[in-house]
Amino acid sequence: MTENESVDSNEEEKMTENESVDSNEEEDLDKMLEGMDTDFDALQSFRQDKESNDSLRRSLERQEIYSDLYKPDDEEMKEIKDVASLLGVGGFFHAHSAASELLNFDNDKPKSILLKQGDVECNGQKRILYLLTHGILVVVPKGNMFWDKAKLEFAGKLEDVSYIHDHTFKPEEENAAGFTIMFDDDKNMSFKCDSQDEKVCWINAFTSTVLAAYRKKPGAKKFRGWQHSVVRATFYSAAVIGDIPMMKLILSLYPSEINDLDDFGCSALHYSVIHNHHDCITFLLENNVDTDITTSSGASLADLVACADEKEEILEVFKDHGVILVLPEKVDRDELFGGANMHSDTCNDVHNAAEEVFGQMKDTRNAFNERGEKLKNVANKTSQLKNDAAEYKDLTKKLKEKTKKSWFA
Questions:
Q1: Domain boundary residue among 187, 219, 251?
Q2: Domain holding 174: CATH number?
Q3: pTM above the 0.85 mark?
Q4: Each residue of 78-88: pLDDT tens digit?
Q5: What's the rounded Cα separation, in Å, for the pair 354 and 192?
Q6: Please, are residues 138 and 189 in contact by the beta-carbon 8 Å criterion?
Q7: Which of 127, 160, 294, 376 is the most buried (most CB within 10 A)?
Q8: Do 75 and 147 lie in a common domain?
């Protein structure tokens, strides 16, 4: 056997070995998959849900979409028009002004885009919930008959939302996979989702949109921790609104959160002091809360108590539990108790002022355009009169010539 033939033989043996290994790996993989209780349809559904949620998250992070000056792109406008067409909104005989406004048929109002839609239950009935940047739509789905159409049941603006609460942390609520939206006029709507994960996705989506709407409310009081009173879904929410049953339930589920700081640098104990909730302070002290923890800006518990409206009573609560606080002589109440996320609120104030100026400029421009149209109409009429005068003069001249000819005929 030559040297080349020997090499070829070795290569063939290696290829055979590799094919055998590959075959064994495939058999092992098949056996492994057979032994697994894997729902590949569910896995595919999970992947699609994840892609949808990632897309929603990216949309919610675009702060410009909440601006009154935002102009939806072609794809966003198509989505809104599809919803409007489905509901018959915008037609001559449609009387639902709120829906027409939300679906971009009112030229003087902010332009909404569609953020999320999904099947929910409302009062035991199947509904489709649409979340827009400036409001919500609750729709009765199309029936089984070919003549059935989807019907709009409710349209509401996010600026009219008072608060949202998560049923998971409300002991009196039977359905944990749900949430309730409370409006300023005391109207409320409760929704049940297919799962806890879907409910969390809705809560997260509403958090971004409702807080954006609340920031633009004229005269809305933005005390420290106001975000937790608008979306009531956390341990901090219980402290801000003074809800002891909610606080007990959440602490039983997540005991480590008792000393955690939120995104705005405060703990549940800090918020309980700021909002004068004696019973919440008592409950937290009885559960060994850390009284030495400071806010992210360095304010101590004593600093917060010194600014509290009921500081004497709060001091007694701490004293009864063996905590002696020495209050500072001077503290800046506005700095400690002012609206959390103040930088964002300041930016919003500046942005709103800019929008107001822009609105005034738009009104001025429209007035000038209207005046320009009137001047243009006057100019057109003047030109027409000149043309008529010239034509009249020409006709007069011709008439004189014709008359003169008739005299000498």
A1: 219
A2: 2.30.29.30
A3: no
A4: 998 888 888 87
A5: 40
A6: yes
A7: 127
A8: yes
